[in-house]
Structure formats: C-alpha cells, structure tokens
Amino acid sequence: MSSIRTHLAVAATLAAITLCVPDPVAAGAAGGGRAVTVPPGVTAGIAVYDRQTGTFTEQLHAHTPFRSASVVKLLIALDHLWDRPVATLPPEDRERLGIMLRSSDDDAASHYWTTDGGSAIVRRMITRLGLGDTAPPPAAHPGYWGYTALSAADTVTIYRHVLEAAPAAVHAFVMDNLRAATPCGTDGFDQSFGIAAAFDRPRAVKQGWSGFTSDGCADDSRLSVRRAGTAGVDLRRGALHTTGTVGAGDRSIVAVFTLHPDGTPYGKAYSDLSRLTRSLNVPGATRSSGSWFGTWGPALQVRAAATTDSAVLTTLPDGVDVRVGCQHRGEKLTVPPYTNDWWSYLPAYGGYVSNIYVTCPGNRLPDVPECTDGPHA
C-alpha cells in the first residue's frame, strides 16, 4: 500500500526530502573528535572549561564581549548575596532571586537593578571577580541591565567563583536554582535550548535571549526591544546564549554566546545554538540517544499522548529542531494535503507531536525505532 501522505507538487516533495536529514545522536560521553559547528551567519563566543583537568577544551572568540541578555542575572544575584547570609534572606527575597535564576524573571532582575545600584552592581562584580571583558550597559541605556557586556571567558570565571570560592550557602542556592531551570521563562520564551537540549542531566543552566519575538510556551505577545548598536557591543542583532555546568560534580562549565542575522526566527536561532552546543567537546557530559529533525507549522503543541485530546505539555517555537526518541501509531490526523497516524515521542518534553509536523516525507521517520511498551507507548 502506498504512503497515505502525498504531496501536491514534486517541488514540495524535493523540499521536504532536503529538510529530512536526521542528525543521529548516540547515547554516551560528549568527548572530543567532533568539529565545532558555527552555523553560517552566526557570530559566536565559546568557552568550555574542564574543572577536573583545569583546562579549556573549547575556546572561540572567548574574550569577545556580547550583550549579556539574562546571563547578567548571575551577577545580579551574586551581588545581592555578597554580604547577605542566605539563611537570613526574607522569604520574598529568596523567592524573587530563585525565580530570576530558574525562570529568568525580568521583573525580579529589574527590582534588584533598581534597589542595588544599577550599573554599580556590574562594577562591583568586575572588581570582586577580576572580570576582564565585562562592562556595564552603555551610558545611553543605564536601565537596560541586559545590555551589560559579558564574554564567554568571564562567564566561566563567574561559574568558577560560584563553584569554588563562594560560601557554601551561596553555592547551593545558586546552583540548586539553575539545576531546577524551568522549560519556559516567565516571559513566555522556551528556554530549553543549548545545554538543556544537547546534554542529559546532571546539568545546570542560565540562558539568555534578546531581540526576538516571543515564541513557544504560552505567551507570544511580547517583543524584546532592539536598539541601534553602540561601540563595543552589538545591541541590534538577535542574541541567544546558553551557559551553565554539565556532568557529575559540575565537571564542565559551558558558555556559548551567539548573535544571529536580522530577521532570524526564534526557532531557527534556537536550533542553530543547540546544534552548535552539541558539537562541543564537553568532558563529563552525556548526550541522549535519538535523532534530530526539523518541524514546521505555527504553535506546534506537544501532547501528553498521541492524541489531540490529551493534555498540552508545551508549545514549541516555530520551526524548531526536536530530538525524537521513538515513534508509534496514534490518532490519525489530516492537514491537507497530508494524512498521518504516526507520532514522534520527544524525550526532552516527555510528550508527542504528530509526524505530519516533522519535516520528512513519508509517514514514518527514517532510522527512528518504534516505541515499545512502557512510558512512551
């Protein structure tokens, strides 16, 4: 019996075939032997530091400053905790700091930026940690904490301070919140990219984004402000950053800062950054098994089961790459000109999307096993 998915034109078929180039990922250590892949048009600053050997395994433009976006929230939190015992923090302060770290809450960051001195926060932390590439926001934008200049190398220094020099209570508070990073930020952005997409737990992440229309999760109504660039740091192009630690004992510190061409959709930037992160040599990290595919369609929902009446777990950024663990039959869907009853299981989200929305011809995805009895079926 021929496939029940058909195409209106040969051109559409060829386009789909071109897009269907699965990137298989074998489970196991994320060691060397892979070439770092910076997508065309993307500007990247990269640093990967192995705490076990005390050496960098990756460095690319590591000292180039980028606008930090929400990565500066690490400095905001550390400054606030510098002379305040964690044990005596008021409950509202503990919750505000926690949601700023876990869910990248902007209101919390703005609160501390106002109450703790604005750019003075950055200047204090530069002196305390010896940050050589970091600078406060430009004088023309004093209230824009996300315009702080920060490099991948300085980000490694920040994490090393948290892990190796900060008081135990500060270490635990910061890292516990970063390990509990939520799939979505409080502004409605999906923050499961980069480190969170590339590597299994244990991991801790602090992500950053700026200059994109909100995409994914629950809220697509906000727009991050773009402004003209100023000397020293690009404030115009879309910025997407992934930082954190990976592996048992926080073995590796990873910092990847990226700028994307004007007009780049969030889903493409998300996929490009995740692809770049997967190519890195990260000692102690484990890559999950599965194959990566592109998706299409606006507001693609991940379902708890292979049916459209099951619970919606999240909404994906438009056109984002997803890791497929297995596939099996479920509810038959028709989206003209396609009809398909196969669904893909996405382990990163713990749910399913119809294969109709995976950019690959045919009902079943190539080289993806059928789900067996258990939590996936």
From TrEMBL:
InterPro entries: Beta-lactam/transpept-like (IPR012338)
Record-linked SUPFAM superfamilies: beta-lactamase/transpeptidase-like
Keywords associated with the record: Signal
Gene3D superfamilies, alphabetized: DD-peptidase/beta-lactamase superfamily (3.40.710.10)
Segment forming the signal sequence: 1-26
UniProt-recorded name of the protein: Lipoprotein
